[in-house]
Each structure stands twice: as structure tokens, then as C-alpha cells.
Amino acid sequence: MALQFEAFHAGGLAPGWSLLVQGHSDSGEDQFEINFLSETGDIVFHIKPRFSSATMVANAFQGGRWGQEEASSVFPLVLGEPFEMEVSSDAEHFHVHAQEHKVLQFAHRHRPLAAITRVQVLSDHRLAQVELARKGLCWG
């Protein structure tokens, strides 16, 4: 799997950041994942769509081992179709949306959040756009 995008922010990427990935799922392989990493190299949040089982799986790799995998059967992605995924965070969770549907939320397993400094998108699919942005606060 090829590294398609990598970004680093010394002040931390959670909470308040949003990652938007747009692409095309053009093969039957489960060759797409997003990883948020700590400054020590642990994968504090790993999200991967599994087209073969129509599930979205999330986990964390800390201290040299994977934790308990969490899976969601909310899977609005279709092979051969364009897709859009967004990962955002607040003080308690990472939130994953695909095709504007809430897919899952994943409780932070790593503290402090400011130590989450890197994000990677690995994919063998064609990615049209990857955008990392600090979300503004909205007052309603």
C-alpha cells in the first residue's frame, strides 16, 4: 500500500481537526487506511474500510500491540464508485463519516491528545483530494 498523504502538526491534531479524503474505490482489495500517530510512533487511531465484509474497522496500536478492534456495519461505500470520508475529533472521540453518514465514533485511547501529531493516508485507490483543516467553532 502506498503512502498518499502525510501531515504533521507539532501542536497536536486532536481535538478540533478534520481530515477529508475523496477518492475512487476502483479495486476489490481492502487497500485503504487512515492512521493518526503519536509523537512516539504509536497508531492512536486506525480506520480501515473492509469492502470484502462491508464493515468499517477501527483500532489502536500502542505499546507494540493492537488493542480491541471496533467495527461498524454502517458501510455506505460502494466498490467502483467515488467515495468521501471525513475523520474529525472532539475531546472524547474520533468521529468517522462516509458519504455524509455517521459510521462510527472511537473513544480516545491515548492521552494527552496534544501528542497526536501525525496523520497518514495509505491507499492503492486513486485519491482525488486529501484535506486537513482545523475546524472553526460554530456558535448557534
From TrEMBL:
Q: Which GO terms describe its biological process?
A: apoptotic process
> Which GO cellular component terms, listed alphabetically, does the Swiss-Prot or TrEMBL entry include?
cytoplasm
Query: A Pfam family for this UniProt protein?
Result: Gal-bind_lectin
Quick one: where is this thing mainly located? cytoplasm
Return the InterPro entries for the record: ConA-like_dom_sf (IPR013320), Galectin-like (IPR044156), Galectin_CRD (IPR001079)
Q: Which residues form the Galectin domain?
A: 5-133
Residue ranges of the TM segments: none
* A GO term for molecular function: carbohydrate binding
Cell compartment(s), UniProt: Cytoplasm; Secreted, Extracellular space, Extracellular matrix
| Keywords assigned by UniProt, alphabetized | Acetylation, Apoptosis, Cytoplasm, Extracellular matrix, Lectin, Secreted
Which PANTHER family does the UniProt entry name for this protein?
Answer: GALECTIN, GRIFIN
* Assembly and interaction partners: Homodimer. Binds LGALS3BP. Interacts with CD2, CD3, CD4, CD6, CD7, CD43, ALCAM and CD45. Interacts with laminin (via poly-N-acetyllactosamine). Interacts with SUSD2. Interacts with cargo receptor TMED10; the interaction mediates the translocation from the cytoplasm into the ERGIC (endoplasmic reticulum-Golgi intermediate compartment) and thereby secretion.
Annotated protein name in UniProt = Galectin
Please give the organism: Capra hircus
Q: What is the lineage of its organism?
A: Eukaryota, Metazoa, Chordata, Craniata, Vertebrata
Query: Gene encoding this chain?
Result: GRIFIN
